[in-house]
Each structure stands twice: as C-alpha cells, then as structure tokens.
Automatic annotation (TrEMBL):
The gene is lnt. Its EC number is 2.3.1.269. GO terms for cellular component: plasma membrane. PROSITE patterns: CN_HYDROLASE. It comes from Candidatus Sulfotelmatobacter kueseliae. Catalyzes the phospholipid dependent N-acylation of the N-terminal cysteine of apolipoprotein, the last step in lipoprotein maturation. CDD domains: ALP_N-acyl_transferase. Pathway: Protein modification; lipoprotein biosynthesis (N-acyl transfer). Residues 255-512 form the CN hydrolase domain. This is Apolipoprotein N-acyltransferase.
Length: 551
C-alpha cells in the first residue's frame, strides 16, 4: 500500500473519531434552545387558554390554544420534559383565569400578600396536573405508535379532566359558554364532551401542520365531527324553542341585596333590621310587577332560624320574613339546631307556612368545611375562626310551589357552587324539576372575573338538564338562563366592599320545562368513561408494541 493511500485513510479516521464529540457538543448546545422554545410555547398555550375564557372572552383562540402544547409534547427531548412543560401550560392557564384568588385570600382569610400569592401558586400548580397527565398519556402512546392527535388529544384530555379532582369544578368547555350552538352536546356528554370537541379541532390543526399522508384524513374527521355537533346543536335549540313557546310560563322575581359578606346582619345584629327591610321593600315592588314567586339570595335573611321552623313570625316580630307582600318566597337562610348549622333554602308559601326546605349538600372547602376533618376531628380548632362548622344536607330536594291560579310546580334548589357540579344536578334532575334555582353569594370574589366565570359554568347545567335556571346572587350576576343555555336576562356584578349600592331587584318570565329527561341526565359521564377506556386501550397497545420507543 502506498503512502499516498494511507494518508487519506488516516485523515478519515481522525475525522470519524472527532464526529461523536462534535455531535455531543451540538446536542448540548441545542438543549438551552430547546428548553427556551418549550417554555415559550407552553406559556403561549396557557395564555391562549385563559384569554379564551371570560372575562377576556377571546373564545376563538380556544380552537387552537392547545396546538403549541402539542408541539411541546411531541418535540421535547424526553417524556419527563414534555410532561413538565405541559404542566406549565395548565399552571399558566389556571393562573391567568383564577387571579382573583389572591384578593379572596387577603380579603376573607386575612392572609398577608406573600402568603396569599403562595397559596394561589400552589392552587395553580395543582390544577396544572391535568395538563401534565394529558402530556404523559399522549407522549406514552406516541412513543411506539403513530396515532394522530385528532384522536389522541380529545381522548386523553377527557380522561385527564375525569381523573384529577378539582377544588372548584371547572372544565375547558367554559370557554364556549357564550356560544349556545356549540354547547348543546352537553345534554349528551356533559361539559367534558364540549372539551373533547375543542381538542378534536386542536388535534386536527396540529396534524395539518405536522403530518403529510394523514393530514387530510385528520382534517376531514374533525370537520365531520364539528359539523355534526353544530347540526345537532341547531336541531336541539329549535326543538326546545318550540317546546318553550308552548309551555306554561312562570314570572320570577329576584332580590339582589348587594351586601358585603362581612357586613351581613348575621354577624352584625345592628344591621339586620335595615337589611331585612330592604329585602321586603324590593319584594313588594316585585309583587306589584307581577312576580309569581320571589327568590332571595344565599343567606340573605339576616337572622338564623331553628330547624323546627314551620311558619313565618307574627307581624309584631321584627324577624318576620314577609311584610307587606304575600307572594311565595324562596329564602336563603342559616338554619341551626343545638348540634348543627345548615346553609338552607326555605319556601314560604302564600299562607306564610314553610312549604319545603333544601339544605346545601356540597360544602365549600375551608369556608363551610375543613377538608379532612372527618379523619382528624380537631383540625378545625387550629384554623382561624370562620373555617368550617357547617353540616351537609343529605339529599337533593324540590320545593313544591303552588301559584295563585292553583298550578303546582317543582323548583329544584341548589346553593352556592352546586349549580356547576354535574353529578349533583343529575341527582336533582331525577326529581324532574320544572325550574332550577341557584341561591349564591359571589361577593367574596369581587366583580371582575369570578361572577362571570360562575355564570359561564352555570349555563351548562341548564343544557344538561334541559330546563331553565334562575340565579339569585347576592351582589350579582343574577341571571335567567333558558333550557338552551342562553342568558336571557341578567344584572350587573357589584363589589359591595369598594362600590356599595342599595338592594335591587329584577324580574323575568321563563317557560316551565320538566328537566332531567336528557341522555346525560340518565347515563351521566358515560362518554367520558368511554374516552378513559379508549385511552387505556391505546396506552396498553403502546406498551405492548414491539416498535422501538422514543425517549
């Protein structure tokens, strides 16, 4: 072999020996860039989600909000990195939507700003687990398979929303609350069904941007599903509009006290008589305007009542509920015995008798109950005064209303955030109420975001049960929602701590439709469980696949 042939071979070997080192250097150099890109895409995705939600209401963004996160999940160098970055998506999304929690914790728990911010961040971090679990499932399935995102995204997000318990029940579907045509499928699949529809479109957009051969199939599948959902929505809305037009009507009056929670007569007896007089004055106005039933808000009555209360007090008693009017009235009140305190709704009939009572079943964590107290009985003793102390009601109840013309109707009462808990509404729907009543107090949260978010979540309950809902809210937003989830009338939200206003009232007429007859009312979250079953099947198939896994 000549010297001329040896030299090129030696040079080639030297270059080959250097190549792995160069690749390692390049790989190391790429890591900060990959991380920065992942963080930016995650922050973008989370921001798109909370901007889609009320009070920002840029809901069109929700149809592509998950696309940056899907890029992160698919392109991150490891599954762990994909999960952590997608956890950030959830934390940013929840943080942007629930920013009002800081003021809530400062105002009512008396926490310092640093501690309130810390608990708020913990809350955001916890709810980010929904997105972390979503990322883990998607990345695990796609390690060994090539299923398109148009299939994986809706299945896995529906499963994630099912599996992760929430302190405040909410779903990504909230971003479509003001679009009745989109949310009609909630009477089949509940709010998670609407979440899945959003993820179908997001998955299809991602497939169009990344796939070649299957992109068209994904687009066609998503288009068919979306069009079918909208056609179904149009059919159901027209159907219930016809039913509503032919149904009996009920004129309901709502009294909105606009009283700050820490100024209630329950805690300041010197204010009680004035607050009760304001409620009675507004009720008289509603009666004169033709109200057939009047609704007072959660704990609006400024005194507590004994559990054996059966009839209104005599005229001479300052605690008399109805003074100057006789219209049947649903009263939000605390009822108590020697051993228990309940958050209740009472129906006082035309004769002044108690015709029915509902006791709140799902108590507010830390406000009305201390989580874990059933396992650690002394836990409430180490927390500040005002945490816990309430007893939960046992079962859903309808209040039997008899109007002046002799007609009888069933009013399904829920209190506070029970109107956004689908499982509780299904239990109430089994009693087939003609109308849902929600008595609540959102004055804790200010007037900017939470009252709108609560209303947005509540509209799904009307669609799920296909009956109207009346929301009587202490400082707004009081609202009347029809069986198609449309807000037909509402008041303003007021912050009584910074913008004190006198009591006000509002009036509207709603059709009476017997609720609880929908597919969702009967089968519950069957759709969501089928999604979880499908996700489990795909995870099992991915694990058992012989294909070489990704990191």
């Amino acid at each position: 072999m000549t010297r001329r042939n040896i030299k090129p071979r030696r040079a080639a070997r030297r270059r080959a020996a250097r190549t792995p080192q160069l690749e390692v250097v390049r790989s190391v150099d790429r890591r900060p860039r990959e991380l920065a890109t992942g963080l930016a895409l995650s922050a973008l995705s989370g921001s798109l989600w909370f901007l889609s939600c009320t009070p920002f209401d840029l809901s069109a963004l929700s149809w592509v909000a998950m696309v940056p996160a899907l890029f992160v999940i698919d392109r991150a160098s490891t599954r762990l990195r994909a999960c952590l970055l997608c956890w950030l998506v959830g934390a940013v999304g929840v943080g942007g939507g629930f920013y009002w929690m800081v003021e809530l914790l400062r105002r009512f728990a008396g926490l310092s700003l640093p501690l309130a911010v810390l608990l708020y961040l913990v809350f955001c971090a916890y709810h980010g687990i929904i997105f972390l679990l979503f990322a883990w499932m998607v990345r695990t399935i796609r390690r060994r398979t090539s299923y398109p995102m148009v299939l994986l995204a809706p299945l896995t997000m529906a499963t994630s929303e099912l599996l992760v318990p929430m302190l405040f029940p909410f779903h990504l579907a909230i971003v479509q609350a003001w679009h009745p045509l989109v949310i009609q499928i909630a009477d089949l699949a509940g709010p998670i069904g609407v979440t899945a529809l959003l993820l179908v479109v997001n998955g299809a957009v991602y497939d169009l941007l990344t796939l070649r051969r299957k992109a068209l199939a994904s687009a066609v599948a998503a288009t068919v599903i979306l069009v079918a959902a909208l056609l179904y929505g149009n059919f159901r809305m027209r159907h219930f509009d016809r039913l509503s037009a032919a149904s009996p009507k009920l004129t309901i009056g709502v009294v909105q006290p606009n009283v700050a929670y820490n100024q209630k007569g329950l805690y300041h007896p010197e204010e009680a008589s004035g607050q009760l007089a304001a409620l009675q004055e507004q009720s008289r106005k509603l009666e004169n305007s033709g109200a057939q039933v009047i609704v007072w808000t959660e704990t609006a009555y400024p005194y507590s009542l004994p559990r054996d209360f059966r009839a209104d007090f005599p005229e001479s008693d300052p605690r008399r509920i109805r003074r100057g009017f006789t219209t049947p009235t649903v009263v939000g009140v605390l009822t108590e015995s020697d051993a228990a305190l309940y958050n209740s709704a009472l129906l006082i009939d035309r004769e002044g008798q108690q015709a029915g009572r509902y006791d709140k079943m799902v108590l507010l964590p830390f406000g009305e109950r201390v989580p874990g107290e059933e396992y650690f009985p002394g836990l409430s003793n180490i927390l500040p005064k005002g945490f816990g102390g309430f007893t939960a009601g046992k079962e859903p109840t309808v209040l039997p209303l008899r109007t002046a013309d002799g007609s009888s109707w069933r009013l399904g009462a829920v209190i506070c955030y029970e109107d956004i808990i689908p499982s509780l509404l299904r239990g109430l729907g089994a009693l087939h109420p003609h109308l849902l009543l929600n008595l609540t107090n959102d004055s804790w949260y200010g007037a900017r975001a939470e009252p709108w978010q609560h209303l947005a979540l509540a509209v799904f309950g009307s669609v799920e049960q296909r009956t109207g809902m009346v929301r009587a809210v202490n400082s707004g937003i009081s609202a009347f929602i029809d069986a198609n989830g449309r807000v037909v009338h509402k008041t303003e939200a007021v912050d009584p701590y910074f913008d004190p206003r006198p009591a006000e009232s509002t009036l509207a007429t709603l059709p009476l439709l017997e609720g609880g007859r929908t597919v969702y009312a009967k089968v519950g979250d069957l759709f969501t469980y089928l999604c979880a079953l499908g996700t489990t099947f795909l995870l099992g198939r991915a694990v058992l696949s012989s294909a070489s896994p990704r990191p």
